[in-house]
Amino acid sequence: MAIGKRIKFFRNLKGLTQKQFGEALGFMGKTSDVRLAQYEAEARVPKSDLVDAMANILDVSPNALKVPDIDSYIGLMHTLFTLEDTYGVQVTELDGEICMRVNVRQGKDAAELHKMLCSWREVAAKLESGEITKEQYDAWRYQYPRLDTSRIWAKVPSQELSDALIQALTRED
Predict the structure, then answer these.
(1) Which pLDDT band holds residue 155 (cuts at 50, 70, 90)?
(2) Residue 156 pLDDT more than 50?
(3) Are 58 and 50 in contact (CB under 8 A)?
(4) How many Å apart are CA 141 and CA 126, to the nearest integer?
(5) What is the rounded CA–CA span in Å between residue 63 and residue 68?
(6) How many C-beta atoms surround the C-beta of residue 114 within 10 A?
(7) In the predicted model, is pLDDT for residue 157 greater than 60?
(8) Are 50 and 66 in contact (CB under 8 A)?
(9) CB atoms within 10 A of CB 21
(10) Higher pLDDT, 6 or 53
(11) What is the DSSP track for the chain?
(12) d(CA 20, CA 95)
């Protein structure tokens, strides 16, 4: 799902109109809903600082808005292939069902992903058992890692490098 669809999804989940959301972001007057419509239709792409502001108002992680290209089956498959190459994700079969697993022996990144997925599974099991509500489960997912109490998540090295490069390139001298 592309960023425009993610913005709309979370805006609707929060119960905000385009106008209300636009005004909360500081867009004034008649243009507030027009700008939001442009972002949701992907006629415009919000800059990183605006994505951060949107995420703050929607009470989600900015990463929940910034999703890789999974709008097509081909894009989704290439995302999965990248996960295989980078994090040891493997496609397998269990009881006649296709499933994915992480080969933790592929390296540090695979082991870290495995820990994060274990944390996700713990929360999903709480939902299945009725210990938490669907709303609590969704809040955990959409605000990840902020609400993760397992404390086993970590930034992957490639994200740290990306953040450092962006910071270095956007510094004003």
Answers:
(1) very low
(2) no
(3) no
(4) 13
(5) 10
(6) 19
(7) no
(8) no
(9) 25
(10) 53
(11) --HHHHHHHHHHHHT--HHHHHHHTT--TTHHHHHHHHHHTTSS---HHHHHHHHHHHTS-HHHH---S-SSHHHHHHHHHHHHHHH-EEEEEETTEEEEEE-GGG-HHHHHHHHHHHHHHHHHHHHHHTSS-HHHHHHHHHTTTTT--S------HHHHHHHHHHHHHH---
(12) 48
Per-residue pLDDT of 75-87, as tens digits, reads 788 888 888 888 8
Residues 140, 154, 106, 120, Cα dihedral to 10°: -10
Whole-number average pLDDT of the chain: 85
Q: 4-36, pLDDT tens digit by residue?
A: 988 998 999 999 999 999 999 999 888 889 999
**Mind listing the pLDDT tens digit for each residue in 104-146?**
998 898 999 999 999 999 999 999 999 999 999 999 999 988 8
3 state SS for 121-142 = HHHHHHHHHCCCCHHHHHHHHH
d(CA 11, CA 2): 14
Long-range contacts from 31-37, C-beta under 8 angstroms, 24+ separation: 36/7, 36/11
Mean pLDDT of the region 66-92: 84
Helix axes 31-40, 3-14, angle to 10 degrees: 130
